[in-house]
Design a protein that fits this description.
The termini are far apart. This protein has two domains: about 30 residues, no CATH class; about 150 residues, START domain (Alpha-D-Glucose-1,6-Bisphosphate, Chain A, domain 4, 2-Layer Sandwich). About 10% of the residues have low confidence. The protein has a seven-stranded antiparallel beta sheet with strand order 1-7-6-5-4-3-2. With about 180 residues, the chain is of the alpha+beta class. β2 and β3 form a beta hairpin.
Length: about 180
């Protein structure tokens, strides 16, 4: 090879090295945002369902919650609640948006034991809407990260485990809400 040809080849060396390292860099990324959306239809008017869901200071309808303590009513950024679980763990949440007319509220989890719910930075919205059947549709959606923010998480803190845990929580919560409202 001539000198100009070698000089040209040397310019590609950093490019080849970067391409060779890219898969490793992609696998080492940190946590990415995850989403869960669960809905359920309830055979009750929206106002009746909202009377339960819209009471931010009471999560007694959620399985595993034995007591709720709160303060601040439904005033966003002031309203807080602590959920006491049958396991002895607690979850601290703060209301960030409340719209009584739209029957919607949004909250964030400020503290949770990862053994209870392996997520971080969870923001969730509960919304009650009229259903075509004359009843209600409740949507519970969230955005969150897995509990382990770095790359290569331990097996119990993967994205899949976090999504599964939130999905199961929302499904069981909505089923319990449906049972409670429909029997009252």
């Amino acid at each position: 090879m001539t000198i100009p040809a070698l000089a040209c080849f040397r310019g590609f060396v950093p490019l080849f090295m970067a391409l060779a390292l890219f898969p490793a860099a992609a696998l080492a990324h940190g946590a990415t945002p995850q989403k869960v959306v669960e809905t359920i239809e309830i055979a009750a008017p929206p106002a009746k369902v909202w009377a339960v869901v819209g009471d931010f200071q009471d999560m007694g309808w959620l399985p595993g919650v034995v007591k709720t303590e709160g303060e601040g009513g439904v005033t966003p950024e002031i309203a807080k609640r602590r959920l006491f679980l049958a396991s002895g763990a607690t979850i601290d949440e703060r209301l960030v948006q409340y719209d009584d007319a739209a029957m919607s509220l949004r909250y964030i989890i400020e503290h949770v034991d990862f053994a209870v719910l392996p997520v971080g930075n969870l923001s969730a919205t509960l919304k009650v809407s009229p259903a075509a059947s004359g009843g209600s549709v409740v949507e519970w959606k969230s955005r969150f990260y897995r509990a382990f923010p770095g790359g290569n998480p331990p097996e119990q803190y993967t994205d899949e485990i976090a999504v599964k845990a939130v999905s199961e929580l929302f499904r069981s919560g909505l089923a319990a809400l449906k049972a409670r409202v429909e029997r009252e």
